[in-house]
């Protein structure tokens, strides 16, 4: 993929020497770059293919709250990595708003600009989302979301949803190639999510594989009537789960030539 199709979006209240240096180095690496204030309207106005968000902390982290929440949602829904630059306190404050599995790396000031840009460049080169199959992972466990993303992100574009409601919200405007769905979740559980998927015309045929700890016969039989593509257990070895996802997409590819 051509990395110049990506833009690095720097989100910063202050545009001083550090920001100017970052802009220059990012451009030298072959990316477009824009700097916006931590303002939802400014961030949402960026329509280019964003390769990464780079959030620069400041003393006024509290004033960035709404922007950080928006960036968190965009990162999860569009699989956009987040990097941060700031003091330890500023990075900690950002991390309390944005889930740790969405932030690829924290950089503490004073920062080596060359190293920072090299890290972002290497990440996009390896995990850039263009042309990859989209896998929506739905689980209320942040640890499980981090694990599955780590297992799959070198092969697939991995989008994370930490609740059934968030998954339905994502599906209303996006179409993944596969949903990996937990069974036991609060408020809206996996069975209810699958029922909603199957009853909505727009995405009723989106394939779903359960990835869950529920292995009792009653739970399995309740959802098999809704025709999921498979039922995997979290206790399986990661290599087995990866292989099952790969095998699903191989079967999908084979159908195209039947």
Automatic annotation (TrEMBL):
Pfam families: Response_reg
Function according to Swiss-Prot or TrEMBL: May play the central regulatory role in sporulation. It may be an element of the effector pathway responsible for the activation of sporulation genes in response to nutritional stress. Spo0A may act in concert with spo0H (a sigma factor) to control the expression of some genes that are critical to the sporulation process.
Name of this protein: Stage 0 sporulation protein A homolog
Lineage top rank: taxon: Bacteria
Record keywords: Phosphoprotein
Residue ranges occupied by any Response regulatory domain in the UniProt entry: 134-249
InterPro entries reported for this sequence: Bact_response_regulator, CheY-like_superfamily, Sig_transdc_resp-reg_receiver
Record-listed 4-aspartylphosphate modification sites: 182
Keyword Phosphoprotein among UniProt keywords: yes
């Amino acid at each position: 993929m051509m990395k110049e199709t990506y833009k690095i979006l720097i989100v910063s209240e202050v545009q001083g020497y550090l920001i100017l240096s970052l802009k220059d180095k990012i451009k030298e690496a072959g990316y477009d770059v824009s700097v916006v204030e931590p303002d939802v309207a400014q961030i949402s106005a960026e329509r280019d293919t964003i390769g990464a968000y780079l959030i620069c902390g400041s003393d006024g982290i509290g004033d960035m709250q709404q922007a950080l929440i928006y960036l968190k949602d965009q990162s999860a829904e569009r699989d956009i990595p987040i990097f941060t630059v700031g003091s330890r306190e500023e990075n900690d404050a950002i991390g309390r708003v944005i889930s740790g599995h969405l932030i690829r790396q924290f950089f503490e000031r004073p920062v080596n600009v060359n190293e920072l840009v090299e890290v972002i460049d290497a990440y996009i080169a390896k995990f850039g989302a263009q042309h990859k199959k989209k896998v929506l992972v739905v689980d209320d466990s942040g640890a499980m979301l981090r694990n599955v993303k780590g297992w799959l992100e070198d092969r697939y574009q991995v989008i994370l949803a930490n609740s059934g409601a968030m998954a339905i919200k994502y599906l209303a405007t996006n179409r993944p190639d596969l949903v990996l769905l937990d069974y036991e979740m609060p408020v809206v559980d996996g069975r209810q999510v699958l029922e909603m998927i199957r009853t909505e015309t727009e995405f009723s045929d989106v394939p779903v594989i359960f990835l869950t700890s529920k292995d009792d016969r009653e739970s399995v039989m309740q959802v098999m009537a809704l025709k999921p593509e498979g039922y995997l257990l979290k206790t399986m070895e990661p290599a087995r789960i990866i292989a099952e996802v790969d095998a699903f997409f191989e079967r999908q590819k084979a159908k195209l030539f039947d």
